[in-house]
Write a structure and sequence with these properties.
Largest sheet: 5 strands, parallel
Order of helices and strands: EHEHEHEHEHHHHHHH
Radius of gyration: 18 Å
Structural class: alpha/beta
């Protein structure tokens, strides 16, 4: 699979960490340093922009509750001033309103601080590859319907992605899937890109084969 928007230096994706809790910030750096290059750590909203100018990171992991300038205010400025910067919200606040505000601004992902290393690493790689990572909030009907599906948990697929896999297996195009699900073709293409990265595949044939094996 061809990955678009690869890291600017051609090596490991470069991360900037913004969280005012120093112990968590340091722990995050230690957790991610094997797979990514942590170029800097900042502890306030006002320190982010200067750090982006100094280091030109690929991804900013951004807490919502920051002193000086909160995450939402910082993101609003950063997305305008640094359009190539991919912002992933990493917070304890599981508020759909906050997540939707970040999404509307142009943030590329959202994760709770309770996420596993595997999920965090996957989310970073997805956004570096040009995708989005916004898991559906808990309690949604679709989540409940798929909660016991082992493959969904194993591959970190969302219920919407499972729906799209099934429709691809039926032979529908992105436009037809968009019409069926009431989505835009762009949204469907983004989901398909995320699916390919999560499953480590690069073609429709491989996706159909995967779906067949799991009985989707």
């Amino acid at each position: 699979m061809t990955v678009q928007n690869a890291p600017k230096n051609g090596g490991k994706p470069r991360l900037l960490l913004a969280d005012d809790h120093r112990l968590f910030n340091d722990g995050l750096k230690a957790l991610l340093s094997d797979d990514f290059t942590v170029v800097d750590q900042v502890f306030s909203g006002t320190a982010i922009a200067p750090a982006v100018l100094r280091h030109d990171p690929d991804v900013l992991l951004l807490d919502f509750n920051l002193p000086g300038l909160n995450g939402l205010e910082a993101a609003r400025t950063l997305i305008t001033d640094f359009p190539a910067l991919r912002i992933v919200l990493l917070t304890m606040y599981n508020e759909p309103r906050i997540v939707e505000e970040f999404r509307q601004l142009g943030a590329r992902g959202f994760l709770l601080k309770t996420a596993s290393k595997e999920e965090l690493t996957l989310a970073i790689r997805l956004v570096v590859g040009g995708g989005l990572y916004f898991p559906p909030p808990p309690g949604k009907a679709a989540d409940a319907a798929h909660a016991d599906d082992a493959f969904l948990k194993q591959f970190l697929l969302t219920p919407r992605e499972v729906d799209i896999i099934r429709l691809v297996r039926e032979g529908l195009s992105s436009k037809q899937i968009a019409d069926r699900l009431g989505l835009s073709p762009f949204t469907v293409d983004t989901h398909r890109k995320n699916i390919y990265v999560k499953l480590g595949i690069g073609s429709v044939a491989e996706l159909v084969q995967f779906a067949g094996k799991l009985g989707l």
